[in-house]
Amino acid sequence: MREVVRFLQNGRVVELADVRPTETVLDYLRLRRGLVGTKEGCGEGDCGACTVAVGRLVEGRLVYQPVNSCIQFLGMLDGAELVTVEDLAENGQLHPVQQAMVDHHGSQCGFCTPGFVMSLFTLYHAPERQATRKTVTDWLAGNLCRCTGYRPIVDAALEACFNEIDDAFSRRADESIAALQAMEQDTRDVFIPQAEGGFFAAPASLDALAELAERHPQATLIAGATDVGLWVTKQLRELPQVIWLGRVRDLDRIEETPGGVLMGAGTTFAAAHPYMARIDPDLGELWRRIGSRQVRASGTVCGNIANGSPIGDSPPALIALGATIELRRGEDSRTLPLEAFFIDYGKQDRAPGEIVTGLYVPRLDPNHAFRCFKISKRFDQDISSVLCALRVTLADGTITEARLAYGGMAATPKRAEIAELALIGARPDRPSTWAAALKALADDFAPISDMRASDAYRKEVARALLAKALVEIGGTPDERTRVSGLRSGEVDHAA
Amino acid sequence: MQPDGTREAPAAAALASVGQSLPHDSAIRHVSGSAVYVDDIREPAGTLHVVPGWARDATRGRIVSLDLDPVRAHPGVVAVIGPADIPGKNDVSPALGDEPMFAEEEILFWGQPLFAVVATTREAARHAARKARIEVEDLPPLLTVEDALAADETVLPDYQFRKGSPETGLATASHLMEGSLRIGGQEHFYLEGQVSLAVPGEDGDMFVHTSSQHPSETQHIIARVLAVPDAAVTVEVRRMGGGFGGKESQANHWAAIAAIAARATGRPCKLRLDRDDDMIMTGKRHDFRVDWKLGHDAEGLLRVVDMRLFARCGYSADLSLGVVDRSMFHADSSYYYPDAMIHSRRLKTHTCSNTAFRGFGGPQGMLAAERMMDALAIRLGVDPLDLRKRNFYREGRDVTPYGMKVEEHATLHAIVDQLEESSDYRRRRQEIASFNASSPILKKGLALTPVKFGISFTLKHLNQAGALVHLYTDGSIHLNHGGTEMGQGLFQKVAQIVAEEFGVTLDKVKITATHTGKVPNTGPTAASSGTDLNGMAAKIAAETIRNRLVAFAAERYQVPPDAISFADNSVQLGERSMTLGELAREAHLARIQLSAAGFYATPNITWDRPSASGRPFFYFAYGAACSEVTVDTMTGEMRVDRVDILHDVGRSLNPAIDIGQIEGGFVQGMGWLTTEELVWDDRGRLRTHAPSTYKIPTASDVPEDFRVTLYASAGNPSPTVYRSKAVGEPPVMLAISVFSAIYDALASLNPGTIPDLDAPATPEAILHAVLSMKRSRAG
After folding, report:
1. Shortest CB distance from A451 goes to which of B23, B130, B688?
2. Considering CB atoms only, which of A85, A134, A149 is closest to B666?
3. Confidence (pLDDT) at A491
4. CA distance B51 to B28
5. pLDDT attached to residue A492
6. What predicted TM-score, i.e. pTM, was given to this entire model?
7. E-strand spans in B476-590?
8. Can you tell me the distance from the alpha carbon of A370 to that of A323, in angstroms, rounded to the nearest whole number?
């Protein structure tokens, strides 16, 4: 047992025993350390002003990811390197990404700038990126700027981020890696006790996690905390007991099996991204549009499922693909189809003390066709008003089986079972054969109106998306059906 | 051409600093994280934190009881303050006395503060603030334009411009047309939220660091609530993390609460609003309904326009007088209305009090005018650009509905002609027509729209500014003026002007925080006027010192004054050369004053509101934009493919900063008209109070093909500082081209039919218009 949290900052190991379970990295920096270069813009991980870089070892390599420090808890830095905007300049010389921002007039009011600089720093260190505007705008989707209109920032990124990596961090990478490895070798479970039975725990093994979760069924399990962070910063909920999954090595795995992709509960959206893109380009594009680079670097696919958030954009696509999840409580494991996990609004098939341990996503067969569409007010870093995913099995151009799932149309991600039946026997290249399926959607769903869209729009667009999927499967090229997210793959789907 | 594809106007001859594309004065500090914003100031020992409390279940109603004991009992709470703690007046309004700091009897909108918690940490204060037990007797709220019209409730009297005889025009015009347009509001979403730090001093003094575009007004309101003389309150603003109008009047409330808390506790008090509270409590761009009617001839030449502007002002007047006036001043856009009735109503609703937002009402008026043009062009089956040009102000057709003559119409014509050419408008118009003919799902649209924006505060007395310049004996210069820096580059532009006067490089000019003790009684940094006013005031101050130096040196060294010049960090005195510091030391020994205040009042403006006559604007700023979009007619999704902008900044003081204003303003305007949707529910609760639900543009929303060029101006015909033009607000309205391009794409679905599209053009709004076009085609 270890009763301190440890991380690397400026080449030194910081050890903290006084870590409150839900203290944010941002508050730690600003209030405890007086490091005020990192800003709070929204306190919910949507504006990126608080972005810091967090370095971790991935297969022996040091990888820096952008992280929203306003919703990341301090204990989650355990075993990582923390880099803030104050750390970038070297002997009074600006870092190349900082200099490019100055040269291109990339700041006006300057308040979002430290966050942009840190996102650019992580792009600067990212291996093998295509030096395209699209790479940059995707990388910066989680950083809002209200002054510049972004053009100068994108130009600065294109100039500075795709050159040979040569900065203080690359030059001392060997030492940093050694320090991170040394921390990694300490496989004791972390447990920081608090008054009145509270704690921050970071077990190092699946067995320890299962045992801890069973013993403390009221504890809050977090992986990336990109949703739970807001419970604290916005709903002001008290979470006295927090168990972080981030150190559980066994949950970190992601692998391609003969039939699909198997990932553990610790797999982030970012880590899963290339695997999903290989299943289907639409799935890759959906992944690209989930949250932002910051959210995907922390948030996990299983966490998005486990907390049953109605704003999860991955489940409908995973349901259409026939994904299954694995749960564990104490010693007992079980597997169930993903759609069965979502019972009702805010209610999932998960017992107290039970944890989601993994997800299996089947690959598409050659006789499958798949389409997935996300409708939102803004293309990047928005939550869908309607999400539609369709997998059809085709024999000689006729649909023999259909899995059609929607988000935003009901209290949970849900299959359109009546429309699925109506699709059997239809031919995508003959619209008259699927008119009944479009009509059937009205029997499948009775959506509500909210700030994202009205019920009328949701119904209309649900039909339109099914029609669009069928039109495309029927042979119409997507340059003629889409204004964004072409399947030809203009986007870099590397993690 | 510059590497970024933009072009600069020719710089004025023989200037060293003015006209240079220097970086923002704080650029290096911005990227290093060392630029200090209010929340970054090292807190004085014992600083307390303040959070306003409000009734989460009440939109409008009578306060029956307010139990604050649970708030007081929360750990860390030092004090809970309410109306009884205000020594002066419970009012934080700019003028009319209609905005209580804390509501006392009646709650007037969802989010109105009732009290404030003062605690040892911000976290404790936030938790405690939610513990109040509040009982409210609900009253039915007025929420929409229609609610307010039905109740006949306004915050200010109606107002109108009348030109010629609109009634006769409408009665005799050969062709009539009418329509109605709803225009959504807009949240400022400055990245730095509202924040103030109040530090009590001796003898009732109060020093307040705040993020305000109007430090003098903040000072006066704090003095009012504290019941102390203005002179006892000092307000300082080094920089804001964005303002956009949202900190013109809206910063006052929070600064005043912080000051009251500091007075009550005797300790420094900081109030930084949580983002959700900020978006719920502070005012936004006004949303409008505009009903229009026009008469025209067979060729589409306007004969008469009758426009009714219904502005949703919220619960109080705030700045709605000027905002809606400016909508009226821009209800003509760039077009000549022979007869006109421009009528406005300032409607009262039980929602946050709408306020200044970059453009200050102008964008809404102009959008309505451009809608009229688009609708009329569709009806007549002519190219909208041809119709626009036909109706432009020109010689003999140059008097606005408010009686001012448009003198510089040649600039408008030149900009539009040049952009039409450089954007390849005519060829693309044909390409798009053939694309649409063969594309059943995706439809393209193209629009080229003009901007003519009046420069000057229409409240005449605000058109003044002061500056304070010191020259020290080492040759360094201290620069201060009444303008505030919110990212627009004002401080750097003014520093460039002062550096030019003294012939020094920018490192010799120390930019200092706006401070009510240095330059008093200032106006807000608003109305795009920051540089025009403060730049001129600083120039006058610098000239005063320089003239004293010249007079002194001419006598001391026996050289004619015209043989004395200031350049390249030195002073040339005939054959002799010395540094500015050396000359300053000699002048100081000779007891010459090396400090000067400069003052400037804009000439040539004579607007008289009661009689609706005179000249409100010193000049107009012009620009034009051409946008191309693609619309998905199945889903309503939309992509902006290309934007070309040609914009007039007169003779640019700093082309890089000006281009930054143009690009940033355009993108902000594009957000207003596309992705940014404010949604209130039927109980008057704002549902979009965080960036998770309110979507400003991201990097990928900006068209990859984005060509921004400064118009090659011979200089502002009006005698502004170095013949430059204001640039803060006008570019917002360049984004109307995007909205018009969407309209153009929709119109292609059924030629001759007028699409039903309101702003913002969200996917839902666009699909609604698509479906009604298809229905009208079927029917």
Report:
1. B688
2. A149
3. 60
4. 33
5. 64
6. 0.97
7. 477-481, 509-511, 514-515, 564-567, 570-573, 576-578
8. 14
Question: Which pLDDT tens digit goes with each residue over B74-114?
Answer: 999 999 999 999 999 999 999 899 999 999 999 999 999 99
Which residues are B306's β-sheet partners? Answer: B293, B341
Sign for the CA dihedral angle at B384, B305, B357, B406 comes to positive
Contacts of A85 in chain B (CB under 8 A): 31-33
Domain B464-601 fold is Aldehyde Oxidoreductase; domain 4 (3.30.365)
pLDDT value at residue A308: 80
* Identity of residue B141: P
Q: Does B636 touch chain A (CB under 8 A)?
A: yes
pLDDT digits (tens, 9 = 90+) for B397-435: 999 999 999 999 999 999 999 999 999 999 999 999 999
Residue-wise pLDDT tens digits, A455-480: 999 999 999 999 999 999 999 999 99
Query: How many Å lie between the alpha carbon of A402 and the closest alpha carbon of chain B?
Result: 22
| pLDDT computed for residue B9 by the predictor | 43
A 1-60 near B (Cβ less than 8 A): 27, 34, 36-44, 46-47, 49
CB atoms near residue B353 (< 10 Å): 28
Contacting A residues, span 452-471, partner chain B, CB-CB under 8 Å: 452-454, 457, 460-461, 464-465, 467-468, 471
A109: nearest CB among B31, B191, B439: B191
DSSP state of B527: T
Q: CB-based contact (8 Å) between A439 and chain B?
A: no
Active site amino acids of B: 729
> CB contact, 8 Å: B704 with chain A?
yes
Whether B441 sits inside 8 A of A111 (CB atoms) is: no
Question: Would the CB atoms of B441 and A480 count as touching at under 8 Å?
Answer: yes
Q: How confident is the model at residue A488 (pLDDT cuts 50, 70, 90)?
A: confident
Say whether A155 and B632 touch across the interface (CB within 8 A): no
| CATH assignment, B1-13+407-459+613-779 | 3.30.365.10
Q: With a cut of 70, which residues of chain B have pLDDT below it?
A: 1-13, 779
Dump the DSSP string for A7-59. EEETTEEEEES---TT-BHHHIIIIIS--TTS--SSSSSSS-TTEEEEEEEET
Q: Which domains does chain A have, with CATH numbers?
A: 5-183 (3.10.20.30), 185-244 (3.30.43.10), 254-362 (3.30.465.10), 368-474 (3.30.390.50)
CB-CB neighbours of B590 under 10 Å: 11
Query: How far is B354 from chain A, CA to nearest CA, in Å?
Result: 19
Gap from A330 CA to chain B (nearest CA, Å): 36
Q: Domain limits of chain B? A: 1-13+407-459+613-779, 464-601
Q: Could you identify the residue written with the tokens 């209010």?
A: B38
With contact defined as beta carbons under 8 Å apart, do B375 and B188 qualify?
A: no
SS3 labels along B155-208? EEEEEEEEECCHHHHHHHCCEEEEEEEEECCECCCCCCCCEEEEEECHHHCEEE
Cβ B282 vs Cβ B355: under 8 Å: yes
Whole-number Å distance between alpha carbons of A343 and A329: 19
